[in-house]
Give the backbone structure.
Amino acid sequence: MDAVCGLLLLLLLHGTSHGVETFCDGRQNGTKCYGALGGTVVLRLMDDASKIFSYQWIFNTTTILRLRNNMILSNLIEKRSSFSPSNGTFRINDLSRNDGGEYTLEVYKDNSGTNQEKRTLQLTIQAPVSSVLLVSECLSQGEMKASCSSEGGDSPQYRWTLGGRTLTQTQLLSGNSESQNITVKQDVSGELVCSVRNDVSVVRKEKQTCGFTFLQCTLSNGTYISNWFPPAYETLCPQPTPEGKEPDITVSNKPSIKITSSSHTKALPLLYCGLRAAVVFLILTGIFVYFACKKNDLKKAEGSAVHEVTEYENDSVVMLEMRSSASRL
Ligand SMILES: *[C@@H]1O[C@H](CO)[C@@H](O)[C@H](O)[C@H]1NC(C)=O
Ligand SMILES: *[C@@H]1O[C@H](CO)[C@@H](O)[C@H](O)[C@H]1NC(C)=O
Ligand SMILES: *[C@@H]1O[C@H](CO)[C@@H](O)[C@H](O)[C@H]1NC(C)=O
Ligand SMILES: *[C@@H]1O[C@H](CO)[C@@H](O)[C@H](O)[C@H]1NC(C)=O
């Protein structure tokens, strides 16, 4: 476990000490190159150095690199640099401000000393931007006051974008797309980004705009409103949606009302039905019992067919009574 932590720490330290690496193609005379303080710069000085007889690389007035027939004769900054003759690149690590200045390459195509070619490049060392601070505030009407600041970097340049596009003057109440302090109009919504760059780094920070919405309606308590409101108040007005559908508020309320009202109107007939069924059942049971008793009586009395008819008449009377009692319920 400790070994893993140690390894992670080592990797982190390695990652931070490595610094920023920049590349510059210095094959054209007068190229401007930039290196990050504490970082690495890779300079392309020529195409292929292996065919060149001899050359030297001079910083300000000091010769720092000297080669002849592909042999490095001297390299003053050997410890933190390397030269690759095959592709003509010179790599300098651990850059300090003292590395900034003019570098001149002198190429000799033969040993005559006269067939000479010369070109220079200007190396500028900059401290990279280490952090960006974006402070913002929503004003009462939803305008956004935003302030961007940075730490560590040399000659930082600020730029504001909204949803990937440079902020335009029509979206701003104060400042411009390159100011540190700006005020964004309330109808501008999206992701506001402040990016701070110099020639060796770019760091950005983003914030959502205030996202106010304009509400205009009469509230349920009779208050008329017509103003910009923060996102939390979006549902204050029962506004119809663009598709002409019913507004959200009523949609969420109506079904519950419908359910309660329909449950009343459905529950009542159900109740009547149930009661009727129960009454019918009771009466039918009564008839059954009545018949069972009558049969027993008949067996005892041994009555005529006329007798039976009257008995049925009695039944129908009972049935009529049952119906009237049920409808009374
Ligand atoms: C140049 O060559 C060296 C060594 O062969 C290699 O490490 C480096 O990436 C090359 N650089 C470029 C820019 O091709
Ligand atoms: C190299 O020259 C530049 C001006 O071109 C100067 O600012 C810098 O200090 C010089 N560096 C050294 C180490 O002499
Ligand atoms: C930006 O505003 C801050 C305060 O919010 C102020 O300290 C700073 O000086 C302003 N910067 C510019 C460039 O106006
Ligand atoms: C009506 O309601 C709004 C929001 O709920 C409230 O701000 C306002 O004071 C109320 N108005 C009255 C007259 O009660």
